[in-house]
Amino acid sequence: MTRPPNRRAQTAVPTSRFGRFMRMGLMASELVLGSALDGARQLVAGKRPDSTSALLTARNARVLARELSRLRGAAMKLGQMLSLQGDEILPPEFVQALAMLGSQGYGMPAAQLHRVLGREYGAGWQRRFARFDEEPIAAASIGQVHRARTADGRELVLKIQYPGVAKSIDSDVDNMATLLRWLNFLPVELDIGGLTAEAKRQLRLEADYEEEARHVERFGQLLADASEFIVPAVHRDFSTRRILALDFVPGESLAWLQGDDVPQRERDRVGRALEALMFREIFDLHYMQTDPNPANYLYQPDTGRIVLLDFGSTLELEPARVAGYRRICRALIAGDEAGIRRHAIELGYLSETEPAARAQGVLEIIKLVCEPLSHRGRYDFGGSRLVGRARDLGLDIALRHGLPSPPPETAFLHRKLVGTFMLCAMLRAHIDAHALITPWLRQHR
What we know:
The protein is of the alpha+beta class. Helices cover about 50% and strands about 10% of the residues. The protein is built from 17 helices and 12 strands.
């Protein structure tokens, strides 16, 4: 066993439902206490404290992110989902803090890690490996990743699920929903019930690594003709329902492409590949990896290829819904206001009886967030400030007219759309998204 320096911070994963419930209760108490202290400071300064704004502080955002990172599992994943819903709902401090959840997970202590390996591989599991690195190379909401060399010389990465995650999904999500309702810090109405039901459904799939192995293999087949991507191979003899064994594929983080010595054309090429893959997943494959966290990709400077790492959150898209997206995209590009409204109703973003002012607000938001598709020529993702403009418009409309919640079944699709935009913005890519999507819109008329 090896123990590299600079070890990741470690905390044991709470595995019992009671222990996880108590951790959430303590988190809620800390949020309320922090709000009370902030309110007292406002009183001393001669200001009248507002109970909602007192909860929406940068300090509380950091507390929420820290505690969800320690809990891991479904609670942390729901926080990540809220960060994407939050562009039109939460203030920037909360969006930024929750968005960091994917990169700040704690590692399991060695004793807990060894118990998991013993349970999955059996007694004497160490003999299966010539080397096993106990320091994880990544740690996120559902599990952590370790490098290993098998006794027969294969270089692998092992995605090892945190204990108790699968059995705590329903209680975690329900407890988080109760916490959100109790704290009441969402400034607009959100369909928490629909969001939690969709979160439970998707998280049950994510927690089944045998299912993820099937997704990896299927994507490997579907993208075999896409030379710009690498999908690591699955090693079934080292995979279980709670451990996924894949080829170790070397590469740099996508942040490497932000270096000043990386040509703009290379950043554009990588961003264009990611954007094109998203459109292909929606309109051609009807099959989508819905977690475009930067940590789920690697970049190979020597080959220019992109390594796709995580397929736990994978969604089958219904052909009827895909057809609806195709129709609304055509209407958006054509500037067809009546068509945009009609297809927004078909997709569930509006109801037939929506008040006129609120319906117009929703349509304005849809047109704004789809700005890259309507833009002729290369769109500057890094310089657009689109996310901030969409948030400001959403909050303004919400406060004046209220906003209906998007259909819960679209939560993971939206995560893909927003996340891919953020990847392209991170790369400061200039991409002709209009040209990329247009061929897909010409089909299936």
